[in-house]
Design brief:
Layout: H1 3-18, E1 36-38, E2 43-48, E3 54-59, E4 62-67, E5 73-78, E6 84-92, E7 96-112, H2 114-117, H3 132-137, E8 141-148, E9 166-169, H4 179-192, E10 196-202, H5 224-232, H6 235-255, E11 262-263, E12 266-267, E13 281-284, E14 286-287, E15 298-308, E16 317-321, E17 324-325, E18 327-332, E19 335-341, E20 347-351, E21 359-369, E22 379-380, E23 388-391, E24 394-397, E25 400-409, H7 420-424, H8 432-438, E26 448-452, H9 461-479, E27 485-489, H10 504-514, E28 521-525, H11 540-554, E29 566-573, E30 576-582, E31 588-590, E32 600-604, E33 608-611, E34 613-617, E35 620-624, E36 631-636, E37 646-648, E38 657-658
Parallel strand pairs: 1-7, 7-10, 7-26, 8-10, 26-27, 27-28
Antiparallel strand pairs: 2-5, 3-4, 3-6, 6-7, 8-9, 11-12, 13-25, 14-22, 15-21, 15-25, 16-20, 16-23, 17-22, 18-19, 18-21, 23-24, 29-30, 30-35, 31-37, 32-33, 32-36, 34-35, 36-38
Helix pairs in contact: 4-11, 9-10
Length: 664
């Protein structure tokens, strides 16, 4: 090659390549400092670069290269790697990115609603496990890594999540992380000795359909309209709505001062001495009061007076109110105890002991919402049993008669875009949380999933029987393999009648159990660690322990007993019914009570259940009832907050069941 030709080629190279300082490689937030990669499994990495740009990835002394496609996306597969670390990983294109402190271990995704979201230590009146301070202080596990996904709704699948990145488990980092996820990961780390990566993606008060993709819901005609609504709105429409929301907020900041509950900047209507005897009454929970609030958008004030028994003002209380939309400020005896904006989940606020009084107490809720579009969902609605004040051992029911009054009128706001009510239903719209908080994770290899959800689907158990398995199948399709999927059966919550009765929560638990028909699934029962007065029980340690046992059996295959004795069959023997179980581990056991079994009910035709006598004979439960000569069916722990005491030798409780179900 002549010198002239060499110079010409060098000039061309400099022109084409040397000046390409803008050709950069970018990475999703999951691929960042401190990350944990799944051991012993093929790995997939991805990111963005200029179209056609060559990207070289180097990890543990080996390099591989790929090119960005016409849309600037690139993907790379790495072979399985054993556990270890810390390592560095570099990505080189026009620039070089280095990810440091990388471990290879086990990665688990934790998802669901508020009981998964429940943080290790209380924040804003929500969270706080048993001995929270001790758990936080002892959280020194640099090889347990936490990745919290920020709340995000989306009309279509996103490519990245909102997050502050990976952080090592330490007292300064774990307090606001999912208690179940952290405690589960800690037990796995102690058991298997490899780094554990925990990805938390959850949102309180959300039903299963919002976590399922549009494709995963294709077999459910009841969701077709909502999915169709989402498909009609593009990014521009969402931007226009958010612009409207900003205008609304500014308008309210100005005109909200006219709220008749405020005088000289003080909330007069929230004062306990205010006389509201001439306010109209309504029954709560229900949606926006129809007659008084017809064609009304704005502030609605709710007031409830009640008596607290003496000697109940020495400890903090927990105020639990049913779902509200859209934004509340809640007062207890004139003091603000909590505020939530635009979230449909139950309100769970701490009431400091100094605010409690023996005798008369006053709760006031100042609620801002929009109703003129006819949605009918705003207001204080939900379930009556979800409205109470818990102070020590005293539970005060708050459902029933409240007084209300309209405040600032927002009907003078700019015209609402036609899709506003679709946006305002977020995060309750099908698929919007899958799109925003799950889809961006589907390229990241997992060891498995832990799931704690179902409270928001109570009352729809028949649908959940197929919806929950559809979610599991959908996620497995999205990830491209059948990762282990472990889930928590609903804990005890809510009051029960004195006699056996139907229970929507028991039906939902039954529907959850149906998902065990799918391979690679495991269910842990939390029925005995619930709290009749609190939908968020604090004993998350036991829940996490049972999930770790389920993981040991389903994901690690080390022979651990993963669940308690599960109903298998029944046979009538004279005036008794004999029940057999599977999965009883080292055998059936009765916890406490001198060997007498609790929690059983029995019925004959036409099916009226009474409390039963029950005993163990070998590996069978023998059930009978006074006056029942021709028994036909048995139920166990079939109520909101049952007290059954049938366990296996490993200390795991039997899940609730009924033999009269069409499932059997």
């Amino acid at each position: 090659m002549t010198e002239r030709k060499r110079r010409w080629l060098l000039a061309v190279w400099l022109l084409l390549f040397a000046g390409r300082s803008g050709a950069v490689v970018t990475l999703p937030r999951l691929l960042s400092d401190g990350m944990v990669l799944q051991r012993d499994a093929p790995l997939r990495l991805w990111g963005r670069a200029d179209r056609g740009e060559r990207v070289r990835i180097t990890f543990r002394g080996q390099s591989t290269a790929t090119r960005a496609d016409s849309d600037g996306r690139w993907f790379c597969n790495l072979p399985p790697r054993p556990a270890g670390g810390p390592y560095e990983m570099t990505f080189k294109a026009g620039n070089t990115l280095t990810i440091r402190d990388v471990y290879v271990g086990d990665v688990w995704l934790a998802s669901g609603q508020s009981n998964m979201e429940f943080p290790l230590q209380a924040h804003g009146g929500f969270g706080g496990v048993v001995d929270a301070a001790g758990e936080v202080a002892a959280a020194n596990y640099p090889r347990i890594r936490l990745f919290a996904v920020g709340r995000e709704t989306a009309l279509a699948p996103r490519t990245d999540v909102r997050s502050d990145g990976w952080r090592a488990a330490a007292p300064a980092t774990v307090s606001d992380f999912s208690a179940v996820a952290y405690l589960f990961g800690r037990e796995l780390y102690r058991r298997y000795g490899v780094a554990v990566g925990l990805i938390e993606s959850d949102w309180g008060g959300t039903p299963a359909e919002v976590w399922t993709s549009a494709a995963g819901l294709s077999g459910f005609p009841e969701f077709e309209r909502a999915i169709s609504d989402l498909s009609r709105f593009d990014a521009r429409a969402v931007a226009e709505f958010r612009s409207y929301a900003a205008v609304k907020n500014r308008w309210y900041a100005l005109h909200g001062r006219q709220d008749r509950g405020r005088v000289d900047g003080r909330d007069i209507w929230s004062a306990p001495e205010f006389d509201a005897s001439d306010w109209p009454q309504l029954q709560v929970p229900q949606h926006w009061p129809g007659k008084a609030a017809k064609d009304f958008d704005g502030t609605m004030w709710y007031r409830k007076e009640f008596d607290l028994p003496p000697a109940q003002d020495q400890v903090d209380g927990r105020l639990h109110l049913s779902k509200m939309l859209q934004a509340d400020t809640t007062y207890f005896n004139g003091e603000i105890v909590g505020e939530t904006t635009g979230d449909a989940r139950d309100r769970d606020y701490l009431v400091p002991a100094r605010h409690l009084r023996p005798g008369r107490n006053v709760i006031v809720v100042r609620l801002v919402g929009q109703y003129r579009d006819g949605d009918g969902y705003v207001g204080m609605n939900g379930v009556a049993d979800d409205m109470y004040l818990q102070v020590g051992g005293t539970r005060v029911a708050l459902a029933g008669t409240w007084r209300f009054q309209t405040g600032a009128d927002l009907t003078g706001l700019p015209e609402v875009p036609p899709y506003a009510m679709v946006e305002s239903r977020f995060p309750q719209m099908p698929s919007v949380l899958f799109n925003g908080m799950i889809a961006p994770l589907t390229g990241y290899r997992l060891k498995g999933v832990i799931w704690y959800q179902g409270e928001s689907n109570v009352g729809r158990a028949a649908q959940y029987r197929s919806l929950f398995p559809a979610l599991i199948r959908d996620w497995r399709r999205q990830w491209g393999y059948e990762m282990p999927f472990l889930f928590v059966q609903l804990a005890g919550f809510g009051s029960d009648s004195r006699e056996p009765a139907e229970s929507a929560r028991a039906e939902l638990r039954e529907a959850q159990g149906m998902a065990l028909a799918l391979p690679g699934t495991g269910m842990v029962t939390a029925i005995d660690v619930g709290d009749a007065a609190d939908i968020h029980p604090r004993n998350k340690q036991e829940v996490a322990h049972r999930l770790a046992l389920a993981a040991a059996g389903v994901a690690y295959h080390d022979g651990a007993v993963a669940s308690g004795p599960t109903y298998r069959s029944m046979r009538v023997d004279g005036d008794e019914i004999r029940i057999t179980f599977s999965g009883a581990g080292g055998g059936l056991r009765v916890m406490g009570n001198g060997g007498a079994l609790r929690g059983f009910a029995i019925a004959s035709d036409p099916g009226k259940f009474i409390w039963a006598d029950a005993r163990l004979e070998g590996e069978e439960a023998v059930v009978s009832g006074a006056g029942i000569r021709h028994p036909a069916a048995v139920r166990y722990d079939w109520s909101n907050t049952p007290d059954g005491n049938l366990y296996d030798a490993e200390g795991l409780p039997a899940p609730p069941f009924r033999t009269d179900s069409p499932l059997y």
